[in-house]
Amino acid sequence: MASAFVIITRAPEGQRSVLTPGGQHNASRLVLIDHFDCNEGAGRQRLTFNLALTGASHKARVIPHFSQSARMSLLKEGAAFDLIHIDGDHSRRGALADALLAWQSLKSGGYMLFDDYQLPTMAQAPPSPSEPPSLFAYQPPPAVDHPAHPREGIDAFLSIVREEARVLHSGYQVLA
Question: Name one Pfam family in it (predicted).
């Protein structure tokens, strides 16, 4: 069995990393990129705790930076991955930039998984009238074609690599 090298952008509390299937293979490794909202607070502590629960935290490398600078560092290192899961910047430009950088470190025959392709918009998920809006709470983008929604960035990337990749699944997540 070939080794599995997985990279995940935005690792909230290690939720997805705990579920990564390659974890049992001795040579498998996991790279997690998350800026942790620019601090080492509760999110980083939960991630460390959840990784420890797997018994394989020694296989995980956590890069506490924004995704694009972290990806540039990984490219300089010559890192290559079998699976890349992008769930970071929800803007179309951010999604496109993450995908273009990630593509350069994807192994031949590897997979890219995009999250939030069908991210709900304000029209689909209006805010609750009983809760006052918070300055720091996540606010859904107003529409799919809004710059704060990742769909057009993902579509642009898939158009660019259409001769090299094919979409295997498209729903809330896209697998190519």
Answer: Methyltransf_24
